[in-house]
Amino acid sequence: GRGHTAGAQLAGPQDVPTARDKLLGYQDALLSVGMAAEGEYVRIVPFGREEAVEGFVTGMLKGPTPPTGFFCVNPRATVFCLRALHRAGLRVPEDAEVVGYDDLELPVPVPTVRQPTYRLGEAAVQMLLDRIEGRRTEPLKVFLDPEVVIPEENR
């Protein structure tokens, strides 16, 4: 690892299955390396209200054990997390690391979890065709593996 002692999750609403899965995956990953995975280091970010991330991050940085890593639920949350870290005088990735979800061009390159959007589109069309043509009538869940993209500056 990179010596992190605490990682924060800026999670989406837990009534959204994909947001819930992201939080569970984050918690599993932290627990696997012996780090705390809940409580003060998890904040639920309402979709469309990502500006609240800035306050969440600022508050966490003032705590007794500020996190040194942040996983953001979506690109807007990533932008507001970076803004809060910058305003606190922290450099990314030197002082704190940020991992985003979905691609977004940022002034600071950060690792990103990239969804396989082309494959998602293919799967959606195939499922639609199967339903239209009567080959499948019951709901189907499809899981596609995302890709972790690490910019050269973060290696």
Tell me what the structure shows.
- The protein is an alpha/beta fold.
- The protein has helices spanning 17-32, 52-61, 75-87, 117-132; strands spanning 7-11, 42-44, 69-72, 97-101, 112-114, 147-149.
- The chain has a 6-stranded mixed beta sheet, with helices on both faces.
- Helix 2 (52-61) crosses helix 3 (75-87).
- The longest helix has 16 residues, at 17-32.
- The termini are close together.
- The model has no long low-confidence stretch (mean pLDDT 86).
Shape: elongated
Report the C-alpha radius of gyration, rounded: 17 Å
First-to-last CA distance: 12 Å
Class of secondary structure makeup:
alpha/beta
**Low-confidence segments:** none
Strand order of the largest sheet: 2-1-3-4-5-6
Percent strand equals 5-15%
Mean pLDDT: 86
Instruction: Give me the count of strands.
Output: 6
Helix content: 25-40%
What is the count of helical runs? Answer: 4
What oligomeric state best describes the polypeptide chains here? single chain
Which terms would index this structure?
155 residues; alpha/beta; six-stranded mixed sheet; 4 helices; elongated
What's the quick description here?
By secondary structure, the chain is α/β, with parallel strands linked by helices. The protein has helices spanning 17-32, 52-61, 75-87, 117-132, and strands at residues 7-11, 42-44, 69-72, 97-101, 112-114, 147-149.
Topology record:
Layout: E1 7-11, H1 17-32, E2 42-44, H2 52-61, E3 69-72, H3 75-87, E4 97-101, E5 112-114, H4 117-132, E6 147-149
Parallel strand pairs: 1-2, 1-3, 3-4, 4-5
Antiparallel strand pairs: 5-6
